[in-house]
Amino acid sequence: MSQTKRFLAVTVAAVTAMGMVGACSKNTDTKPAADGQVNLVVDTFGDFGYKALVAQYQQDHPNVKVELRSVQKLDDYKPKLTQYLAAGTGAGDVVALEEGILNEFKTQPQNFVNLLDQGAADQQGNFLPWKWELGRVGADGPLIGLGTDVGGLAVCYRKDLFAKAGLPTDREAVSKLWPGWDEFITTGKKFAAANTGAKGFVDSVTTSFSAMLSQAGDTNFYDRDNKLIADSNPVVRQAWDTSMKMVSEGVSAKVPTWSKDWEAGFKNGSFAVTMCPSWMLGIIKTNSGAANAGKWDVASVPGGGGNWGGSWLAVPTQSKHPKEAYELAKFLTAPEGQVAAFKEAGPLPSSPKALDDPAFLALTNDYFSNAPVGKIFGTGAKSLKPVVLGPKHQAVKERAFEPALQAVEQGKLTPDKAWQQALKSAVKEAK
Amino acid sequence: MTSSSVVRASAAAQAAGARDPWRSRLTRADVRFAPYFFIAPFFVMFAIFGAFPLVYTGWVSLHDWHLIGDHTFIGFANYTALFADPDFWNALKNTVGIFVLATVPQLMMALGMANLLNRKIRARTFFRMGVLIPNVTSVAAVGIVFGQLFARDVGLVNYVITSLGLDAVDWQANTWSSWIAIATMVDWRWTGYNTLILLGAMQAIPKDLFEAAALDGASPWQQFWRITVPQLRPTLVFTVIISTIGGLQLFTEPVIFGNGRMLGGTLGQFQTVTMYMYETAFQRFQYGYGAAIAWSLFGLIVVFSAVNLLIVRRAAG
Q1: Average pLDDT over chain B, rounded to whole?
Q2: Distance from CA of B242 to the nearest CA of A (A)
Q3: Does the pLDDT at position B103 exceed 80?
C-alpha cells in the first residue's frame, strides 16, 4: 500500500470514528420545546433571596421552569461567567452582575441583550435614578442590567460579647458609641482591654477599609475618566491610614474575610463586630448558625451612610429565550420582588417604591434580635450616592489592597512597604 | 502486502471472489482498514482533547488575547514579558519548593511502606488496599479538611502545638509554613499510590536473588539497598516522572488552602505556576499571557522530568 493510500485509510477511519462520537453526544439545549415549555437558568453568587420568588413565578407561569444556580463567592463567579461568555454557551439566561465587576463587563456590551429592546423603558421609574443609569452603557447606550439591590451600610455586633466587655448592648446606645471612626477605634480598645476571650474587636480591617471607601460617595481607585488614581486619591489614603491605626491599636482580630477562621469566628465569637452592608446579614446568619440566634444586633456605621455592593440582572445574548428571560428579570427586580428578596436574604431594595413600602419599612429580622432592618437600612437608602468605580475596581480592591492590609495584620510587612506593594499590584491589576 | 494474514485473507477472498468480485473487494478492504478503524478512537480523542488544545494554546500565546475582547498578534512578546515578571519567578520558586518538599519524603515513605507490605504480615490485602484510600478521596475534600486542620485560630494542628506550650503558627502567613501544610496534603494523598506501584515492582523481583544474598550473609537492610532498590530502578523512574508532572501542576490544594483565592497568600507565599496562570487568564482576562505561562510550564515539566530521570538513574544505578 502506498503512503497516500495508507494516510487516506487512517483519515477515513478517524473521520468515521469522529462521526460516531458526535452522534453519541446529545445536545439537549438545542432541542426545540415542542410543548411551549421554557427552561430558564438564573446565575447568581451568594444568596439573592430568590427561592420563594422563583417558586411563585413558576406557579404563575406553568410553561416556565426556572433553575437557580449559585456559587458562594463573587471571586469564583466572575471567571465562570467570563468563560461562558467567551465560549458563547453555558451562561444562565439571567445573570447577576455585581457593581465591582459591572464596569468590566460593560466594556463588552455585545455580550448582553439590550433590555430597552425588550421594552424595559417603562421600568425606569422603578429604580433609583443612579442605579438605572449605571445599568446603561453610557447615557444613550444600551441597558444591560436591571438593578437588584444597593449596599446600605450598618455595623453588626455581638450583644453577648459587648455585655461581657461592659459596653452598652442596646442598638441606639451602641450607635452613639461611634459617630466617627476614631471613636470606633476607641471603643475597640476598650473592648480589647476587657479580655472577653475574643481575638479582637472587629473581624479584619479589610471590611472597615471597604466601608470607609464606600462612604466616599465620589471616587476610589479610579477617577471619572477611568484613570487609576489610587496613589493620589486622598480618600484611599485616609481609609488606608485609619485601617493601619486599627492594626496598631490592636482592634482587629486579624481574621481574613472568607477564610475558615472567619467562618468559624462567627460561631465561636472570635470578634464582636463586622461591617454589614445589608446583603451581609444572610452571610452572618449562615456562618453563625442557629445556636447564635438572637446574639447579633445591628447598629449604625461610623462616619455616616455609604454604598457597598449591589447588583444588576442581565440577559446574555447567548440566551435562547431572551424575551422570557427579560420577563423573569423584570419580575425579580419589581418592587414586590425586591421586598421579598430582602425578607429572605437581606439585599437592600434599589427601587424607591420598595423603599417606601410600609411593609418593607416594618420588616424586622428575628435572627438579629428583631432589629428593625427595614427602617435601619431603608432610612437614607434613597439618598445614597454611588461611588465611581473604574473598570477593575474589584480586582484592585481584592487583589491589590486587601492582601496588603492583611500582610500588615500578619506582621509580614510594615505599613509603608505594604502601601508600596498595594500600589504596585494595583497598577498590574488595572492593566 | 506480504504479511501472512493478508495472504491468507486474499486466499479466502479468491475463493469467494470466484462467485462475487464485489464481495471479495469488500473483504479485502475490511482486512486492510479494520485495524485502523479499531485504533482510531484513541487518536481521535487525543487529537481533540490533547493535540488541538496544545497547538491552540501555543497560537493564543502569541497574541494579546482578551478573553471576551480583542485578539492582536504580538509574536513572542508574552514570553519576553514573562521572563521579566517577578510574580512568575515567585510562583515558580513556590512550585519547585513545594514539589521538592512533597516529593522527596513521599517517595521515601512509599518505598518504606512498599517494603513493609511486601513482607508476610497479617491482613496483607487489607493494608495493601488501605494505602490507596487517600488517593480515591476527592482532592477538594482533602483541601477542605486540611485547610481546617491548618487554620490559624480554629485548626487542630495549632491546637496541638499550643497545648505543647508553643506559639501558634499562622500557616498561611509564612512561606515555609504554607509550603509544609500544602506538602502534607499532597503526601497524604499520593504516598499510597506510589506505594502500590513500587510494591507491584517489588513482587516481580526474583526470590532467588534474596535467597542467594541471605546465604552469603547479607542482612535484610543490605538486601534492601543492594537488591531491592537497584531492581526497582525503572519503576522509581516512573514514579519520579509522574510525581514531577503532578507536582509542577499543583493547583487545587494550594487554592483551597488559600480560601479559594488565586493569590496564594498575602504576598504570594504559596502561589504556584498554575494558580498564576489561572489568575492571569481568567481573573485578569489576559488569555494570551496565561497561554504563554501554560507553554512555559510545559517546557519546564519536560526539563524537570529529564533532569530527574538522570538523577534517579545515577542514584539507583
Answers
A1: 88
A2: 30
A3: yes
A1: confidence class by pLDDT, cuts 50, 70, 90? very low
Per the CB < 8 Å rule, is B266 touching A14? no
B179 pLDDT more than 90: yes
Residues B243-288 have pLDDT tens digits of 999 999 999 999 988 888 899 999 999 999 999 999 999 888 889 9
* Spacing of C-alpha A144 from chain mean position: 18
Domain ranges of chain A: 38-151+309-375, 153-306+385-430
Residue A306: predicted pLDDT: 86
Residue in A83, A403, A412 nearest the CB of B263: A403
Indicate if ipTM > 0.85: no
Q: Residue A410: its chain B contacts at CB < 8 A?
A: 170, 172-173, 266
DSSP A4-69: HHHHHHHHHHHHHHHHHHHHH---GGGS--TT--EEEEEEEES--S-HHHHHHHHHH-TTEEEEEE
B 205-234 near A (Cβ less than 8 A): none
Neighbours of B174 (CB within 10 A): 17
Mean pLDDT in chain A? 89
Distance (Å) from the alpha carbon of B302 to chain A's nearest alpha carbon: 29
The CATH number of domain A38-151+309-375, selected from 3.40.50.300, 3.40.190.10, 2.40.160.10, 3.30.2010.10: 3.40.190.10
Mutate to test the interface with B, among A85, A255, A260 (most CBs of B within 10 A): A260
CATH number of A153-306+385-430, picked from 3.40.50.10890, 3.40.190.10, 3.40.50.300, 3.40.30.10: 3.40.190.10
Using an 8 Å CB-CB cutoff, list chain A residues near B283.
75, 78-79, 395, 399
Same fold? A38-151+309-375, A153-306+385-430: yes
Contacts A268 to B, Cβ<8 Å: 153-154
Going by C-beta distance under 8 Å and a sequence separation of 6 or more, which residues neighbour residue B15? none
Q: Answer for the pair A170, A425: CB distance below 8 angstroms, yes or no.
A: no
Mean pLDDT of B29-38: 89
pTM of the model: 0.82
Distance CA A287, CA A275 (A): 15
Contact across the interface for B153 and A265, Cβ inside 8 Å: yes
Strand-pairing partners, residue A156, are: A274, A298
B170–A9: do the CB atoms touch at under 8 Å? no
Domains and CATH numbers, chain B: 85-315 (1.10.3720.10)
